[in-house]
Amino acid sequence: MSATRSRKLIMTQYGEDFAACTEIVDAKVGEPGHGEVLVRNVYAGVNGVYDLNMVRDAVSYISYKPPTDLGIEVVGRIEKLGPGVSDFEIGDSVATWKVGAGYRDYQVAETSRLYKVPAASPEILCLMPTGISGMVGIEEVGELKSGETVAISAAAGGLGHIIVQVAKKAGNHVIGLCGSDEKAQRLSDIGCDRIINYRTENVDDVLKTEYPKGIDIAYDSVGGPIFDAFVNNLAIKGRLVISGYTSEVGKPWEQVTAPRIYQKLYFRSASVRAFINPHFEEYHPHAAERLIGWYQSGEIEVFVDPVPFVGLEDVPAAVNHLLSGKNLGKVVVKLET
Questions:
Q1: 287 lies in some domain
Q2: Which pTM does this prediction carry?
Q3: CATH code for the domain of 207
Q4: Measuring CA to CA, how many Å separate 69 from each of 72, 127, 174, 291, 293?
Q5: Tens digit of pLDDT for each residue in 84-130?
């Protein structure tokens, strides 16, 4: 194989509509160089917030200029080895993530950013890197312990349901927030102790009434009123981990008039901490090993959203589905057909 013809999804312009700002184009993939391999991408993970923010030019720490390749995380299969590669073989299943490497049929990847995995499946894609992010965020930033009360927003999502199980395995009482009876049932199935349907219950009222001593760890990826409820109900030495704010993505920033946050934190020695996965890469290998081991031994379940998305043509619909909040588990796109 001297070269492979491939397609990829690129951003063509800035805007608020992901589909209108993107286009599928042909992309020639060359030979893998020294220490590189050619990977056939099999499943791509959807990161709707990041995807939309890229085309909105709203990623706070970097500006992506069109035309820019899109997509981040994939599981795939090695189809060709470059010179000097000895720790991988043709046919190996691998997981990898890098901005611009996800929404495409093939990629040439350095072996240093590949993880060998049991299978190129949607479940493994959920664990790597979404599950890694959840585990590292709750353990390292949230300082996960045992015997505490842990609350998780978007608990039935691709990230949240992994955090629920990590917290339960550590011996904690876990509160999961979700927005439907179906999601509530799935959370019950994986051991969530108290499930709050935020569409039918007031989160702040439930926490104040049922947990008067407060929440030891709150893990929030939603923001808005959920963030406020978590801040209001932190326990002494409570930790609130922020890993996103999906409720405000693509909307005007809400102007909040309220006492500054230190008035709520100081007398409880509580804290609010932000987390994004790239800043904690030293923890990734150990987290990946543990998560895959737990999955293979049946110690954790993995939720993959049941709505099928196939091919690069379906990426915009998958992004919209995730941003709608209707997903149950990890949203994936099947690339190999």
A1: no
A2: 0.93
A3: 3.40.50.720
A4: 9, 23, 39, 29, 33
A5: 999 999 999 999 999 999 999 999 999 999 999 999 999 999 999 99
